[in-house]
Design brief:
Two copies of one chain form a homodimer. With 354 residues, chain A is of the alpha/beta class. Helices cover 43% and strands 14% of the residues of chain A. In chain A, α1 packs across α3 and α10 crosses α11. Chain A is elongated. At the A-B interface, α4, α5, β2, α6 and α11 of A face α4, α5, β2, α6 and α11 of B.
Chain lengths: 354, 354
């Protein structure tokens, strides 16, 4: 066995140890050429013995690839945490590292033109091989930009059906449909929804579950039951105050919110109205932020399979990058899970709730 | 004005447009040499006109630098969000981009040996120029490893005083001292603490504020007031149940928790004991997770200036990388802010609380 050199181990050291040429080592470690099994074995053994690690910059130059994926996401409002961020990032880091890639993260510029300039710069300088997008909206400018540049991307979230690009998404309609079926089973017929504006792609996907379930049950929702606004605590609070002030015949006995902060605002409004949550007004929401299980009562919510999304989005993107062909399947829809807790836990009290 | 070439713009195009040599352009854009102001102006004008962007890999090869910073952090437990992650990341992304650097993120491997291997690989392959660390503990193996490799790092958090490396930290002792002064002013003398084990560096920093404030007030805390465990909801809940079962003369009327999940567990235990939060038992904590303002009652908590930490840690690291000298000052302590809310909002009721 050779003594490990104190200086940086080079390709030439590996070649000398393996007893082959410099070029042969390069070809073996870059998987560019079939050599005899015996030669390949000797090269890999020398790599192992010497603990040789190819310089990333040199490798990037040879392969014209950076082995780096770009990701940027819109920051959370100051009064909210991003309930899925940590888990999503950890999942994609792990899946990427398994295939020798790392994640380059960059700031989300609220000025779209400037934000796209960063995408352009990362492409033009060869810093990344592909992008992950999230919070995708209709006619998303990032999607349009990357499609025009013909640069690999996979999105966590859909856009317009006519925009053809690879994506994985959580089936929001299915999640809300699960909540709605649960509420109908509990005997509720007047079910309100705290939703985002109709310009929200994610919101519309989720609201499909509301409309379709009511339609199948033969219930025609009153327009006043559907409140649309910013997905914040303050909107949930204000909208619920209005709902609780409706005449008794119109007043909802159940409420779904498209995210947890709106549901928590709704709980606050109910408490102030001395309306018992879980009996006089049942409340359910979407995202299952870790803390909602500790509310009083604990909040029923729909949990997204975030770890799975991260584990699946990376192979889709890497297959795209490495083969130059769209991943197969090009789009994937995963099903969320309904977590039932005290905020919908009790049978409706017809006396008080009706 | 020249017509923009359709192919990729090269250094030679810039040289031709500026009417200078290839080498001069290279020197100007790499800030390696003083040339005449007029030449420099011509080169930068040509760069602008042609929209020239140096290839990152080529730039990295020339400069022996990756213009990339490495960061990894321990994932949150499944039942907790990381209250500061999004804001910290956005702040460091922005500060890094301003100086032409991006962040490379990698998974946090719970196996220390494997985790350090990733640090070693990122150094050996030249993928990063320095590291940001967080959640730093005593004798932190990452700090020891990077000091041994003499590789640039700046930590968000201190370690042992004898380990000399650059760090920025939030003054946890000052934060808890603010809470304690607030509780003493409200008239409390029996104040319990939900703390981490004594092996926790962050915990011990924060607890200094507890011990020092009580000492200054001439109060000797009873050992049973100090409960140590995992910083989770379940521990806060169990520990508070025990505190509320103490004989009346020992029973605390106030409680500080070193993080929000423990405080939320304490609130749950108080509710189950029919103890009014904010009057019979006041509760305060640390971190000010966005959602705690919406609890019932809203939770008094200490807010860390996370954006500021991110904005300051990046220049410290980049100065270190670019000059090869430790940043000056080498360590920075920033002061948090006490946010007073309903969970400590009322004057103590001597009748019920005592």
């Amino acid at each position: 066995m050779r003594i490990m050199p104190a200086r940086r181990v080079t390709l030439k050291d590996v070649a000398a140890t393996a007893g082959v040429s410099y070029q042969t080592v390069s070809k073996v470690i870059n998987h560019q050429l079939q050599v005899s099994e015996e030669t390949e074995r000797r090269v890999w053994q020398a790599v192992e013995t010497l603990n040789y690690r190819p310089n990333h910059t040199a490798r990037a130059l040879r392969s014209q690839r950076s082995f780096t994926l770009g990701y940027s996401w819109p920051p959370s409002p100051k009064d909210q945490t991003n309930p899925i961020l940590d888990q999503f990032l950890q999942s994609i880091f792990e899946a990427a590292q398994e295939r020798g890639y790392y994640l380059l993260c960059f700031p989300y510029n609220m000025d779209t033109k400037q934000h796209l300039e960063t995408y352009g710069e990362l492409i033009d300088t060869g810093r990344v091989d592909g992008f992950i997008l999230s919070s995708v909206e209709y006619q998303d400018p990032r999607v349009l930009f990357l499609l025009e540049r013909n640069f690999p991307l996979v999105a966590f979230g859909r856009s317009d059906p006519e925009l053809f690009f690879p994506w994985i998404d959580v089936d929001g309609a299915a999640g809300i449909a699960m909540v709605m079926s649960h509420l109908l089973e509990l005997g509720h017929v007047r079910i309100a929804a705290l939703a985002w504006p109709q310009s929200s792609r994610v919101g519309n996907n989720r609201m499909e579950g509301y409309f379709n379930t009511l339609k199948a049950a033969g219930i025609d929702p009153k327009p006043c039951w559907i409140q649309r606004g910013e997905g914040r605590f303050s909107f949930g609070y204000e909208a619920t105050r209005q709902l609780l002030d409706l005449p008794k015949a119109d007043r909802p006995t159940a409420l779904i919110a498209l995210n947890d902060p709106m549901a928590i605002g709704a709980m606050q409004a109910a408490r102030e109205h001395k309306v018992a949550i879980g009996t006089q007004l049942v409340i359910a929401s979407f995202d299952d932020t870790p803390m909602v299980r500790y509310l009083d009562p604990p909040l029923t919510s729909v949990r997204q399979p975030i770890w799975e999304v991260g584990q699946r989005i990376i192979p889709m993107l890497l297959d795209y990058i490495e083969t130059g062909r769209l991943p197969e399947p090009t789009s994937v829809l995963v099903t969320p899970q309904l977590i039932i807790r005290g905020s919908t836990g009790s049978q409706i009290n017809k006396q008080e709730g009706g």
